[in-house]
């Protein structure tokens, strides 16, 4: 019996080698119904082929940006800021990412003003990851939008993504994992080591695997009401 024919390997293709930005994944703002291209399928939650040339190129561009960010001189703020700006979809003022940082595309990551990512965060951003203003993400936080069919043959050729949204003023504890499709409301806290499988309401502390509600976050009426709490 003849051996199965190997599928062709997808390679990085740079249309313009003098402009590496030419291969950054371009996320469409208007998606037809049904979606046609693999990129349109990617961001709309449909099954897609991750070896599509535009997606292969987009991941390669992200790796170039991450290499610059993750190996830059800690005192070279301009280089680090440029790598972050090139990599992300959008970012507000005073966003800071401690390297190393890892993601799939970068184009689907949107960070609000004054949000801080500590060391070794990993974002699988097939679908949009939106994080609001003034959020803290501790070391080793992972946010996954990518998921797969559970049937093995289907899983080997396709995948799909579900967006993750985190509101303003949230704190995500170290080594936490946020799974596809989750929304975390404003001013919520995720305890260290949690696996968040379901939406978290605003002003809620959750922890555990799977993460469950522990208590409410106090609602302040003015800055004068701020007191330390545990």
TrEMBL record:
One of its GO terms (molecular function) is acetyltransferase activity. Residues 39-93 form the Maltose/galactoside acetyltransferase domain. Gene3D superfamilies: Hexapeptide repeat proteins. Keywords: Acyltransferase, Transferase. It comes from the Eukaryota. The keyword Cytoplasm does not apply. Belongs to the transferase hexapeptide repeat family. This is Maltose O-acetyltransferase.
């Amino acid at each position: 019996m003849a051996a199965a024919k190997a599928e062709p390997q997808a390679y990085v293709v740079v249309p313009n080698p003098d402009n590496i930005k030419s291969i950054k994944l371009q996320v469409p703002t208007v998606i037809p119904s049904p979606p046609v291209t693999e990129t349109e399928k990617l961001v709309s939650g449909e099954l897609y082929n991750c070896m599509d040339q535009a997606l292969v190129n987009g991941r390669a561009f992200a790796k170039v940006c991450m290499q610059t960010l993750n190996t830059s001189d800690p005192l070279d703020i301009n280089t680090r800021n440029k790598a972050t700006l090139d990599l992300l979809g959008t970012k507000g003022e005073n966003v800071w990412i401690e390297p190393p940082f890892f993601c799939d595309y970068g184009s689907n990551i949107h960070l609000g003003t004054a949000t801080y990512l500590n060391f070794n965060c990993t974002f699988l951003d097939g679908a949009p990851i939106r994080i609001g203003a003034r959020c803290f993400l501790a070391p080793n936080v992972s946010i996954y939008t990518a998921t797969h069919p559970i049937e093995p043959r289907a899983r080997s050729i396709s995948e799909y993504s579900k967006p993750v949204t985190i509101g303003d003023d949230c704190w995500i504890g170290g080594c936490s994992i946020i799974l596809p499709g989750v929304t975390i409301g404003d001013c919520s806290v995720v305890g260290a080591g949690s696996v968040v499988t379901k939406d978290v309401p605003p002003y809620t502390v959750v922890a555990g695997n799977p993460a469950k509600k522990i208590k409410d976050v106090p609602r302040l009426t003015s800055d004068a009401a701020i007191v330390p709490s545990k």
